[in-house]
């Protein structure tokens, strides 16, 4: 993988920009100090970019999920059309940014991707709203990975999101080398186990699709492949899915492993299944076997090292 950073959209306040309604920020240290080493952020603050001052009266969502309105909490002034018009234009502009995903500010009436307070006609809030900009972005880019900073504190969601954005980066790098049947087959071959860890069904569908390389029209083949790949990445990995892949990997070592080595691997995988050790433990052992016995297929598998080890993502899942 080259050293060019992943381009990722983000709510500006999460970077420490003082753009919130009260003039504060919501800097997230993991996003700025850790993930920021691998990411080039494209900051967006809907409320400032739509022309509102800082500080300003707080905004809230009112109405129903099917008819959300964005209004000032005190005055009741409705700026729904103003925000939606700007949001449509902004997401179209973001097409030029080559984004691999977006991190939204949770609970924001403009940027929250789910469970935003929506006030009904009795002024009673329920957590059923979606921020107007976040909604426009997700409708415009339905398959791009998106998350909120709060949800990224969950180790499983964090690992899943970051795995997805690094996979999309590798996809873009493959595209930069040109579209060809050979390049598509090479990309798929390297990502087989990673895809399997998300969905065995989509893994099979992609296998059938790639088998048509060289006979089907290339543009359509690439479009269908990316669509299925992104659908797979949206599906969360689980312990049973991971165990399935770990056993699949172990199957490549039937001959070289001693009975003791095989038993050790099975025991460690079982401890992972029982949530006694994190995923990094069986992965470390299997990576050792891959290097020791130089298994050629597995040496190429992205699944074994899908993101920088410095992020320690598999230490907690």
UniProtKB/TrEMBL annotation:
Ranges where the DUF1722 domain occurs: 192-308
Classification via Pfam families: 2-thiour_desulf, DUF1722
UniProt xrefs under InterPro entries: 2-thiour_desulf (IPR007553), DUF1722 (IPR013560), UCP037004 (IPR017087)
Cross-referenced PANTHER family: INNER MEMBRANE PROTEIN
Protein name: Uncharacterized conserved protein YbbK, DUF523 family
Species in which this protein is naturally found: Malonomonas rubra DSM 5091
């Amino acid at each position: 993988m080259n050293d060019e950073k992943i381009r990722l959209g983000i709510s500006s306040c999460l970077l420490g920009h003082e753009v919130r309604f009260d003039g504060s920020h919501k800097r997230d240290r993991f996003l700025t100090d850790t993930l920021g080493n691998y990411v080039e952020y494209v900051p967006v603050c809907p409320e400032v970019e739509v022309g509102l001052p800082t500080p300003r009266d707080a905004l809230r969502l009112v109405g129903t999920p099917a008819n959300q309105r964005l209004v000032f909490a005190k005055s009741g002034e409705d700026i729904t059309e103003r925000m939606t018009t700007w949001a449509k234009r902004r997401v179209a502009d973001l097409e030029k940014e080559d984004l691999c995903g977006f991190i939204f500010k949770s609970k924001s009436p403009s940027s929250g991707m789910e469970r935003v307070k929506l006030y009904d006609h009795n002024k009673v809030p329920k957590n059923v709203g979606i921020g107007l900009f976040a909604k426009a972005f997700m409708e415009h880019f339905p398959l791009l990975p998106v998350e909120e900073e709060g949800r990224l504190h969950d180790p499983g969601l964090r690992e899943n999101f970051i795995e997805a954005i690094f996979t999309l980066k590798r996809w873009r790098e493959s595209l930069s080398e040109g579209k060809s049947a050979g390049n598509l087959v090479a990309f798929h071959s390297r990502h087989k186990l990673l895809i399997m860890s998300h969905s065995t069904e989509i893994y099979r569908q992609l296998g059938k699709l790639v088998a048509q390389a060289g006979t089907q029209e290339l543009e359509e083949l690439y479009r269908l492949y990316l669509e299925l790949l992104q659908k797979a990445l949206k599906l969360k990995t689980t312990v049973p899915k991971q165990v399935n892949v770990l056993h699949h990997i172990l199957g490549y070592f039937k001959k070289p492993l001693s009975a003791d080595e095989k038993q050790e691997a099975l025991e460690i995988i079982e401890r992972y299944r029982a949530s006694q050790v994190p995923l990094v433990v069986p992965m470390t052992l299997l990576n050792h076997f891959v290097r020791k016995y130089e298994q050629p297929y597995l040496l190429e598998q992205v699944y074994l090292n899908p993101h920088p080890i410095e992020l320690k993502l598999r230490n907690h899942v």
